[in-house]
Amino acid sequence: MTHQFELGEKFDSALLADAPRVRLSRRGMIMGLASGSVFPFISGCATNLATGESQFLLVDDATIANMSATAWTDMKAQTPQTSNSKLKGRVLNIWDRTIQGAVKQGHVSPNAQWDVAVFDTDDVNAFVMPGNRVGVYRGITELTENDDQISSVLGHETGHVVGKHAEERYSVGVAAQIGLMAGQIAVASSEELSKYGSAIGALGGAAVQFGVILPYSRKHELQADKLGVDYMHNAGYDVKQSIRLWELMAAQSEGQRPPEFMSTHPDPLRRAEELRTYINARGYALI
Ligand SMILES: [Zn+2]
């Protein structure tokens, strides 16, 4: 079974959840491609050891980490970071504790190095870039009511790393760009791919590089939500607060611009419901 890319489909910019506010230069993109590291197609489907799922990957972690280095440096140069040392310390503490939850799960190496920045803007967002680069905006810390909810955000971002979602997005983008988008690709049986196809077509080539611009798919968001809850639980945070977080996101979005962290796919209350089911099934809490 194959899917065809629907190039004319409208792309909803509200889908850009957890995408950093960064514009990549054409030069940077060309350099990334010219590095040649994504060619030839020596890899394809690989099994993710943490999630057990088969993924379409044309790029390894180190390569994509290298490619996003410039975007991360530019981002830190262009976006002010908080000078509030109390806020920064708080976020870093929650980060340390949450990441230990992922280590405990066996999903993250205890030796992994992370670069966490707290940006001083009102954006209600957070993101992770390949290479263990994590961005949190002041805005999302102000929307949240407690450390547990911030842990939920950070656990979610860690879930994107563990799920290798950026690598998968990037790989799909490359595959589409180099002309495999005729609907003949074997991997096109993936629902993921057809979804990306519409985004790629509408955004054009400029948006698909580096795996940092495309929105995560609904499937990736839900997977990151669930992994995040596992990490929260291991870290001793109150997992029920992950549900509250999505309720807050939903409330915030009523009658105004939705928070960037909140993707319209899936809808936040649906996410809250999926989390409730998951938390009960795992026995973390009965809610
Ligand atoms: Zn996400």
Distance between the termini: 40 Å
User: With helices defined by DSSP (H or I, 4 residues minimum), what is the helix count?
Assistant: 10
Strand content: 5-15%
Number of domains: 2
Instruction: Provide the list of bound ligands, each named once.
Output: zinc ion
Low-confidence stretches: 1-17, 21-43, 179-189, 198-213
Rg calc:
18 Å
Helix content: 40-55%
Report on the biggest sheet: 3 strands, mixed
Question: What structural class do helix, strand and pairing data support?
Answer: mainly alpha
**Strands, total number:** 5
Q: Secondary-structure element order, as H and E? A: HEEHHEEEHHHHHHH
Mean pLDDT over all positions: 75
The shape is: globular
- Major sheet: arrangement of strands: 3-5-4
Question: What do you see in this structure?
Answer:
With 287 residues, the protein is mostly helical. The protein has 2 domains: 13-69 and 165-218, no CATH class; 81-163 and 219-282, no CATH class. The protein has 10 helices and 5 strands; from the N terminus they run H-E-E-H-H-E-E-E-H-H-H-H-H-H-H. It has a 3-stranded mixed β-sheet with strand order 3-5-4. Strands 1-2 form a two-stranded antiparallel ribbon. A hairpin with a 3-residue loop joins strand 4 (126-129) and strand 5. Helix 3 (85-104) crosses helix 5, helix 5 (147-162) crosses helix 8 and helix 5 (147-162) packs across helix 9. The model is unreliable at 1-17, 21-43, 179-189 and 198-213 (pLDDT under 50). The protein binds zinc ion. Zinc ion (ZN) binds at residues 17-18, 156, 160, 216, 221, 224.
